[in-house]
TrEMBL record:
InterPro entries: P-loop_NTPase. It comes from Strongylocentrotus purpuratus. This is Sulfotransferase family protein. Pfam families: Sulfotransfer_5.
Length: 329
């Protein structure tokens, strides 16, 4: 399977630019796609495979069986998966569309898009199981957004703790933020695997893509390699990183992309696991949704000064982060 094939006009010119931006939580990816939503003719997809993955996990947790990857003939199972996922995600019943939780269907819908620019933002954890990688859509170039482990996991820990506490999921000593453990007390995503899952997917896509050097400066040619950017770079020098990112992927760039509207309304045009999913999930992305530009990060917290669970997971993640960092744009 070619992961960089593009749809071609009769004269051989590419008529579409299709990109999947793979990442993990708390990397500024939502702010980035809010920025890219300003591109004329762009279609944004918000974590379609991630919702499939979470639905499969909740179904497995509740029933001890695997959720099929095809919706046809399995409608009742997907209705149950949507109910379970809605409950854990604190969303009203009916917000999540059961039919959009099937890997096979996501692949088909992505490949059938006719928009000039298609950008999918998704989580690498949804492709950590090799059996799901056959549902990677043809015709897409893969890009990756990484973030320094201690910073990413600290942010995820904070957001998860606050969310779980308000939902009443935490009991006993876990209700104390100083004693909360992101591995022990979090059942949503395994933060200790974020960097590993992303790195392994990057390796996989690199092996299955046609080898090609990145375009030369000033060239209109798009990259056939996986493109990697780092969130700290994006925050501190967006005027350098964003145009390089766009050029490498075949996206149009203009300085006006560096500023955008504070309203979250644009997010409600993104395609997700339900038409109202993002409207009911704005709280988790509050900072990104209200952003207007990339703001330089505060001085990075030293690993030895963070919570013990963060330090432990950051050390585990660092080799994967450094491997990808060495290949960043």
């Amino acid at each position: 399977m070619s992961t960089t094939m593009t749809s071609l006009k009769p004269n051989g010119e590419a008529d579409q630019v299709r990109i999947i931006l793979w990442t993990f939580p708390r990397t500024l990816s939502t702010a980035l796609i809010k920025c890219l939503s300003q591109i004329d003719g762009v279609e944004i997809w918000f974590e379609p495979y991630c919702f499939c993955s979470m639905a499969a996990r909740e179904y497995r947790r509740a029933h001890g069986r695997e959720l099929p990857t095809s919706y046809a003939g399995n409608e009742t199972k997907f209705t149950e998966a949507a109910r379970l996922l809605s409950k854990v995600a604190l969303m009203p019943a009916g917000v999540i569309d059961p039919e959009r939780l099937a890997y096979e269907g996501v692949k088909e819908r992505l490949e059938s898009s006719t928009s000039k620019y298609v950008i999918v933002k998704d989580m690498a954890l949804s492709m950590s199981d090799k059996k799901y990688r056959r549902y990677l859509p043809d015709g897409f170039t893969h890009a990756y957004l990484i973030r320094e482990p201690a910073a990413a996991i600290t942010s995820y820990r904070r957001a998860t703790y606050q969310s779980f506490l308000s939902a009443g999921y935490l009991v006993g000593e876990a209700r104390d933020e100083n004693k909360f453990d992101i591995e022990r007390d979090n059942f949503l995503m395994d933060a200790g695997l974020f960097h590993q899952e992303l790195c392994e997917l990057w390796r996989y896509s690199s092996q299955h893509s046609k080898a090609s050097a990145l375009p030369k400066e000033g060239s209109s040619e798009r990259s056939k390699q996986s493109v990697i950017i780092e969130s700290d770079d994006l925050l501190t020098k967006p005027h350098e990183v964003l145009p390089k990112f766009c050029r490498a992927l075949g996206l149009p760039y203009d300085q006006s992309l560096l500023r955008w509207d504070a309203s979250a309304d644009v997010a409600f045009t993104w395609k997700a696991a339900g038409d109202e999913v993002l409207r009911h999930n704005v709280h988790f992305y509050k900072t990104a949704m209200s952003s207007t530009h990339f703001v330089p990060a505060n001085k990075r917290t030293q690993v030895q000064n963070v919570f013990e669970d963060v330090r432990r997971l950051a050390e585990k993640a660092r080799p994967y982060y450094e491997e990808m960092y060495n290949h960043k744009l």
